[in-house]
Amino acid sequence: MNLTLKIWRQKNASDKGSMVDYKVNDISPDMSFLEMLDVLNEQLINKDEEPVAFDHDCREGICGMCSLYINGEAHGPDRGVTTCQLHMRMFKDGDTITIEPFRATAFPVIKDLIVDRTSFDRIQHAGGFISVNTSGNTIDANTIPINKHDADTAFDSATCIGCGACVASCKNSSAMLFVGAKVSQFALLPQGQIEATDRVLNMVKQMDEEGFGNCTNTGACEVECPKGISLENIARMNREYLKASLKG
Amino acid sequence: MALDSKTPKGPIKDKWTDYKNHIDLVNPANKRNIDVIIVGTGLAGGSAAATLAELGYNVKAFCFQDSPRRAHSIAAQGGINAAKNYQGDGDSTYRLFYDTVKGGDYRSREANVYRLAEVSANIIDQCVAQGVPFAREYGGLLDNRSFGGVLVSRTFYAAGQTGQQLLLGAYSAMNRQIGRGKIKMYNRHEMLDIVKVDGKARGIITRNLITGEIERHSAHAVVLGTGGYGNVFFLSTNAMGSNVTAAWKAHKRGAYFANPCYTQIHPTCIPVSGDHQSKLTLMSESLRNDGRIWVPKHMKDVEAIKSGTLKPKELAEEDRDYYLERRYPAFGNLVPRDVASRAAKERCDAGFGVNATGEAVFLDFASAIQRYGKETAHVKGLDENDAVLVKKLGQEVIKNKYGNLFQMYEKIVDQDPYNTPMMIYPAVHYTMGGVWVDYNLMTTVPGLYCIGEANFSDHGANRLGASALMQGLADGYFVLPYTIGDYLSDDIRTGPISTDTKEFAEVEAEVRKNIDHLINNNGSHSVDYFHKKLGKIMWNKVGMSRNVKGLTEAISEIKELRNQFWKDVKVPGTNEEYNEELAKAGRVADFLELGELFAKDALNREESCGGHFREDAVELDGEQKGEAKRDDENFAYVSAWEYKGEPSDAVLHKEQLEFKDIELKQRSYK
């Protein structure tokens, strides 16, 4: 396949940035999207041009490092995959592909397609944990039975990879799906009950301070989430938040 | 320097308890005056950072990713072992210890492995208390499954994402301490060297990957939890950024490197599809519970399948060679990883590989689908002879068990594994070798510790499934916090370590010199060009099957490639910016040195053990003909290499392994 790429180039955080066109030829449909970008970068290096910077690491869809807004969609046109799992067979010979970074006030661009997602970390610092010391002297694991449905639902929430596709896809740049997933995981487990009030209040406060927007129930986040994190997580977080606010 | 493992005296079951009762402790007020640097935030580094901060030390943690949550532990699929004996199937600390030593082909240190088995149960308690959502049964209690090489069900899991859930647990424990200000987290920072003061590790030099700034960081002790070096093969199941740099720099500053040739080649990975390939994807070992591995019996069928004129599922049962079941009737498809990998290579080398490259075998779920389908039909009182119904029911069962893996396969290969067998081939997955450590997990440099996959201690020459996660968390949560305290008790009066000293200045100058060389080299080939070449040499000559000729060639070829690299590598851009090519160049430079030592170690070890298979060390006759032959008389030792300038000058030190609690036997899976 021969393709035209329109890629966002931005030298650093203070640079204005612009779209630049590139051509890549002989792309195999079996390549992953990032392998296609590897080909482009090898080509640029050999021509003494600067390669395109993009985040990536595990390349098997679990670390959450890769991002990219491809043809107007977070992680591109396929469903239930991250960019590293997107394959070139989803495109046709002669296609023009637009590649941009995840855009949000709370995700400033570092360079080219790389954004700073440490705002996600700071939300987790505010309450994304259970305050138990790692001494190993806790009670035996099986003294806390948890019904399978709750355990499985908590697991589903916990599979969020923190990539930020939800924020990038949301017209309000809301992080409610990301935060809701963590709040839900702990809200569904007995271990999480003790700190439930503080957790949701602190995490939501931090989320607001980071400059993420609010949820207006459009549901784009759920559609674009590579891990299928459900909107129910947002509803559950809202219930938790209301409960916590009433408790004061 | 003579190697002293510092293993405590006394019966194996009392060693760790006695040790803990007699070490020096640091009181809470003094802990506040002590700094610890932790490099790497995977299961080992992350859990160590959280625990040490909780104890009161000032922790500085470093990772090259944009968040500690992305460390490659996150990609572990299958599960974590623990001797809980919840199933009442006869498990115990001793059995987990025994299985691990035997699975490692008797090349690990008994006392370390026993301690690992001993603390394993605590890990599960700890993780559940942290809110890790393990799989549960309908009664609400924890579920277990079985893994290769053992006779009990002791593996705890969270679907096919156990590593992710455990890492997020450790990450949450870190977050709590970051929030309290007890951990200072440095994301997107790469450690580029170790600084020693008066012989002790007292700091590191890092590069800020966003700004290129070279920074000095000091502490009273330094801990490396930086993972394995599988990427020396270029293609592996490791993440793209996984590297040996931290461990290798430690080696160059005096830490011995142990058993570099012990590498685990995992039998079930998705085959290479072309030269563009950047990494390989694992299909969990758990699939071998239900999948049957085969290639065609006759060459004409191989040709027909390759050319597309014959569909694999159409080939008659009697024309298939289920070679694992044929060669190893007792264990069949569930032989350990090293054995399964070599058997696949043997068939493909003989020309029976089933894809275009000739490097793939089938992993077939058709009979499992039939079996489960009939069973479900029977339970539901439906017609067991309705082929369409049975297939549908069977596929549903398989989907529940392995759905996420099947989806991954389909996305990568573009074939539906419910209807046609998967194609798989072995790939580099884990490195058992690593930085030599004593019982305290301290390297041969005082004050420098190494934990998790980065050290060598627990898995011998072959790691059992679901044991990597166990070791990472055991080291970080439960072992290091004790052993490092014993060392730091001498430092309560030391006070802060200054970075404004000649020791820091000298190391920083070396780091800068290296970077300047790479940036100003203006060569003609990219970093990947050299990395791919190194990978080819490693895979062809230091891979699954090794011989004297190949290893000798590899040593000189790697040396030559390294010289070329320094002369001819091209790194665009500058140091003072985000520059991934520069970061890669530094990592590949270290792989080019490690690769040579790796081959040298493999050449030295004239026996076959675990993942290390020497063609000149095989059983010549009897029932085990052609199988790996260990040589306990001459090679029951750890090879610990001391750096002396060039990898070829490295000096071998031997730690003799003593087996007092387990009898050495040949592993047989026939």
TrEMBL record, chain A:
Residues 151-181 form the 4Fe-4S ferredoxin-type domain. Its cofactor is [2Fe-2S] cluster; [3Fe-4S] cluster. This is Succinate dehydrogenase/fumarate reductase iron-sulfur subunit. Belongs to the succinate dehydrogenase/fumarate reductase iron-sulfur protein family. Signal peptide: none annotated. It holds the Pfam family Fer2_3. NCBIfam families: PRK07570.1. PROSITE patterns: 2FE2S_FER_1, 4FE4S_FER_2.
TrEMBL record, chain B:
It comes from the Bacteria. Residues 35-469 form the FAD-dependent oxidoreductase 2 FAD-binding domain. The keyword Oxidoreductase applies. Residues 531-669 form the Fumarate reductase/succinate dehydrogenase flavoprotein-like C-terminal domain. Its cofactor is FAD. Keywords: Flavoprotein, Oxidoreductase. The keyword Flavoprotein applies. It holds the Pfam family FAD_binding_2. NCBIfam families: PRK07573.1, sdhA_Bsu. PANTHER family: SUCCINATE DEHYDROGENASE 2 FLAVOPROTEIN SUBUNIT, SUCCINATE DEHYDROGENASE FLAVOPROTEIN SUBUNIT. This is Fumarate reductase/succinate dehydrogenase flavoprotein subunit.
